[in-house]
Design a protein that fits this description.
The chain has 441 residues and is of the alpha+beta class. It contains 11 helices and 16 strands. The two termini are 42 Å apart.
Length: 441
């Protein structure tokens, strides 16, 4: 029988546990981030899974030569934990001995252990397995993981069930030409643009469902806001009274995510100097009102009467920020001709839909609304658009045998992270971006 403590004669502790071990000799593992040699001693910065730990080498008490260490070496250090007010963490480790677990074969082609990585955009992503090791770069994705942690906590507390829908599908949920085609054993198939069909189907099973998963868009854009594979946060809920129920839920969801980040990711937020939004409510405007207000204030002619261009999204957010102090704005009632076939038309005006977008600091991050739940109504809208309903028989099966009034939203995780952290290019909030030019690493 294996004794879980048999391999360690000394406590093997996590960096977060060191403050409880002051005065003790412990073992701690990590990767050497940087070595700063002085006269007779050196600071060795150890990168642990969440933080940078300052260790001190001294010829007086360290039983090895500093030359035996190098950057990016994976090690287990044995050392004494001491209190040190000058250290950012309030403690440091006096190194006694070490075990080398692995050593790099050569030096890194990019300097990653400074505060910032000073290199070109292309080099940053060509060497992504290395550049992600930079403390600020990895903090981006610690925060992104924190967002997902907050999402799952919120969904669990609000009785949502997590689902895992297929990523190889028979048809694109959004339609159009921006879908990746596959040869599926001689049949035509696609990479999913959205889990839309499946989350609607699952409302009939669980009532409230969510999914955090990749989606694929074959858009030939080469812009700072588009990538071809991104992570979509999708939710769908039944028995709603109107699409405003979804908007209210999103406000609550965002507020709780921000609260969790402040509590558990304060170090990363401080490192990246994140300007965290305060959110209790979010202003809302109809699409038509928004377009007219932008045109009036900025003396711009309205050219596209169905959608915003990126500049208009920025201008609208600037207006709302000045008027209300809020970084967010809901835009509602988009034209029916602009929204997918499953979106419910407004009873008061069938030319617009019971739908919304959420804009955050100048960019759309969420699209949502109420769906058509009635079978005959869904068939009628599809036929009015010239669609072949037989191609969607498995999707329509849920409607045919009864669905409650329902709605939902999809939030782009990378866009949300980028705008929260102040990045203008969504790729900086994408671990390994996939765009029209990049398939590696």
């Amino acid at each position: 029988m294996i004794n879980i403590n048999s391999h360690f004669s000394l406590p093997h502790v996590e960096a977060e546990q060191l403050t409880n071990n002051i005065g003790n000799t412990v073992k701690i593992h990590g990767i050497i981030y940087k070595i700063r040699e002085m006269s007779g001693f050196a600071f060795v910065i150890l990168k642990t899974k969440r933080s940078l730990l300052q260790c001190v080498y001294s010829e007086e008490y360290s039983k090895f030569k500093i030359s035996e260490l190098c950057d990016n070496m994976s090690v287990v250090f044995t050392g004494e934990v001491i209190s040190d007010e000058r250290s950012r963490t309030g403690i440091q480790v006096r190194l006694i001995s070490f075990e080398c677990l692995s050593a790099p074969a050569q030096e890194t082609p990019v300097v990653i252990n400074n505060k910032e990585i000073v290199t070109s955009f292309e080099t940053m992503f060509d060497y992504r397995p290395i550049t992600l090791r930079n403390n600020k770069e990895r903090a981006i994705f610690q925060i992104q993981a924190g967002i997902c942690r907050g999402l799952r906590k919120f969904f669990d507390e609000n009785r949502f069930t997590e689902i895992h829908s297929p990523k190889i599908v028979f048809s694109g949920a959004e339609g159009g030409a921006n879908i990746f085609k596959l040869d599926y054993f001689g049949r035509e198939a696609y990479l999913t643009q959205s889990p839309q069909f499946y989350k609607q189907i699952m409302v009939g099973v669980f009532e409230r469902v969510y999914e955090i998963a990749p989606v694929f868009r074959a858009e030939k854009h080469d812009t700072s806001r588009h990538i071809n594979e991104y992570t979509s946060v999708d939710l769908e809920m039944g028995f709603i009274e109107s699409f405003y129920d979804i908007m209210k839920l999103e406000i609550k969801m965002l507020a709780e995510i921000f609260a969790l980040l402040r509590e558990y990711y304060a170090g990363e937020l401080a490192l990246l100097k994140v300007n965290m939004p305060e959110i209790t409510e979010i202003p809302e405007m109809t699409f038509t009102e928004s377009k007219e207000m932008i045109a009036e204030i900025y003396k711009r002619e309205i050219i596209d009467f169905e959608d915003f261009d990126p500049e208009e999204e920025k201008l609208l957010c600037e207006i709302i920020k000045k008027k209300t102090g809020c970084d967010f704005v809901f835009v509602t009632h988009y034209k029916s001709s602009k929204r997918p076939f499953y979106t419910m038309d407004s009873r008061e005006n069938t030319e617009v839909t019971e739908s919304f977008d959420l804009l955050f600091r100048g960019m759309e991050i969420t699209t949502g609304g109420q769906r058509i739940h009635d079978y005959q109504s869904q068939i009628a809208k599809m036929e009015n658009r010239g669609m072949n309903t037989e191609e969607f028989s498995s999707y329509l099966m849920a409607h045919k045998y009864g669905l409650p009034p329902h709605g939902g939203l999809g939030l782009g995780l990378e866009r949300f992270t980028a705008k929260l952290l102040g990045y203008q290019n969504v790729r900086y909030a994408t671990m390994f971006p996939r765009d029209i030019n990049r398939l590696e690493p």
